[in-house]
Specification:
This protein is mainly alpha-helical. The chain has helices spanning 2-14, 19-26, 30-38, 48-54, 59-62, 67-87, 90-103, 108-124, 131-150, 154-170. Helix 1 packs across helix 3, helix 2 packs across helix 3 and helix 8 (108-124) runs parallel beside helix 10 (154-170).
């Protein structure tokens, strides 16, 4: 979390505030502020909102999250993902799906991508009924079940149900 320390220092200086003054407002020691800014320590989670308010920024800004960059990143992920459907590059589809889920763990659309990619790998396994094939289909079903459990989007749920039906059918289960 060295990044937040750099951001705290930058915002503190922008407000023409000393470490001591920042510490005084937050009721912490100036040494704590110094440790935050050097990356030796991070502010306690309970300090984040008051710190952001004191520095006149949002918590996203404090953490260095740029919403425009986030939107561009998500668009890039989608572009790469949909391109793999045109090229048939299932391995790349799996990698981009995995990356998307790691970067945006609560995004159920990305989880569906990963479930679909697991199912595709299952279909393409050389040996029908192999341990590898079964594992791909089972992971696919697991991800689809999470979508059904957590999603409020009826279209996404329906798609997940279809995915489970296909995966179980491919596994020979009915």
């Amino acid at each position: 979390m060295a990044h937040i320390g750099i951001k705290i220092k930058e915002l503190r200086k922008k407000k023409d505030m000393t470490q001591e003054k920042l510490a005084e407002y937050l009721n912490v020691s100036f040494q704590a502020v110094s440790k935050w800014e050097t990356g030796a320590a991070s502010p306690d989670l309970s300090m984040i909102v008051p710190l952001a308010r004191l520095l006149d920024v949002t918590t996203d800004e404090l953490f260095g999250v740029d919403s425009n960059e986030e939107l561009l990143r998500q668009e890039k992920l989608k572009e790469i993902y949909y391109e793999t459907w045109k090229t048939g590059d299932i391995e790349k589809r799996y990698k981009i799906s995995k990356t998307a889920v790691e970067e945006y763990p609560g995004n159920l659309e990305y989880l569906k991508w990963l479930a679909d990619a697991e199912g595709s790998f299952g279909i393409l396994c050389n040996k029908l009924g192999s341990k590898e094939q079964i594992e791909h289909f089972e992971r696919s079903v697991f991800y689809f079940e999470k979508i059904i459990e957590d999603s409020t989007d009826s279209h996404l749920k329906e798609s997940a149900i279809r995915g489970i039906v296909f995966a179980l059918s491919d596994l020979g289960r009915r």
